[in-house]
């Protein structure tokens, strides 16, 4: 069967995985003032973080319903089905836009739109579940069932240098409880039930990185793991080495750059882990 997979750019999936599995990416819109860019298409991570470092403040908006409708129409011409996996509906309107776009399709190609309840490689982990099910020859219903079954197995944690970007973007959710007591702390947040929750308040960045590793270790052996960063890949080396002991065949976790869409809310200096637990 020819099943197509769609994610949005908040998934931060590396190009190698996108190409390997033929995954289609719907870009969000990133704005600097009146200037609009398609995330990852005409605004790359290096340029984005350079502008942020220069004092510009970004914002994001969701893809239009018509953009999803056009993508689904194009894919449906040679597809037996489409599974479309998106950033948590509690953090973005992207999922709802995808649902509405799917409703306009008249080709008869079935579409399953999934609220990942996650962001960054939390979405990517579910896309990998779908991709491996496609390789296995599963039909759309089975793939959809496998992805939904994997949602509670995905865990995402992020160490931020500051909460200012999340606060400005209105994405703090229950993490807002951290704001009043963050002097001399580095916040670690967890995505749970589709929302941002406070997780830990280490007193230094080094302790924060150690806490990410310790947290991953608590889940034991993993099906998949990813390490995400926004601006400093060198900080990921120790995390990658530690997490490789938990992955099948001790392979290195996937290294992921947080793109402009997620970087708008995570900001410079962010580190994170995404885990697919057993």
Q: What does this 3D model show about the protein?
A:
- This protein is of the alpha/beta class and 278 residues long.
- The chain folds into two domains: 3-150, Rossmann fold; 153-277, Hypothetical Protein Tm841, Chain: A,domain 3.
- The chain has ten helices and 13 strands.
- The protein has helices at residues 15-21, 45-53, 65-76, 94-103, 121-135, 140-150, 164-168, 205-218, 237-243, 260-266, and strands at residues 3-8, 24-26, 29-32, 35-38, 58-61, 81-86, 111-115, 154-159, 188-192, 195-200, 222-229, 254-257, 271-277.
- The strands form three sheets. A six-stranded mixed beta sheet has the order 10-9-8-13-11-12, with helices on both faces. A four-stranded parallel beta sheet has the order 2-1-6-7, with helices on both faces.
- A hairpin with a 2-residue loop joins strand 3 (29-32) and strand 4 (35-38).
- Helix 3 crosses helix 4 and helix 5 (121-135) runs antiparallel to helix 6.
- The longest helix has 15 residues, at 121-135.
- The relative contact order is 0.17.
Topology:
Elements: E1 3-8, H1 15-21, E2 24-26, E3 29-32, E4 35-38, H2 45-53, E5 58-61, H3 65-76, E6 81-86, H4 94-103, E7 111-115, H5 121-135, H6 140-150, E8 154-159, H7 164-168, E9 188-192, E10 195-200, H8 205-218, E11 222-229, H9 237-243, E12 254-257, H10 260-266, E13 271-277
Parallel strand pairs: 1-2, 1-6, 6-7, 11-12
Antiparallel strand pairs: 3-4, 3-5, 8-9, 8-13, 9-10, 11-13
Helix pairs in contact: 3-4, 5-6
Largest sheet: 6 strands, mixed
The number of helical runs is 10
CATH topology of the largest domain: Rossmann fold
Q: How many runs of DSSP E, i.e. beta strands? A: 13
The CATH architecture term of the largest domain is: 3-Layer(aba) Sandwich
**Element-level helix/strand string:** EHEEEHEHEHEHHEHEEHEHEHE
Could you tell me how far the N terminus lies from the C terminus, measured between alpha carbons in angstroms?
27 Å
Q: Over all CA atoms, what is the radius of gyration? A: 18 Å
> What is the count of structural domains?
2
Strand order of the largest sheet: 10-9-8-13-11-12
Shape: globular
The CATH top-level class label of the largest domain: Alpha Beta
Report the average pLDDT across residues: 93
Percent strand equals 15-25%
Helix fraction, binned, reads 25-40%
Low-confidence region ranges? none
- Helix-strand makeup class: alpha/beta
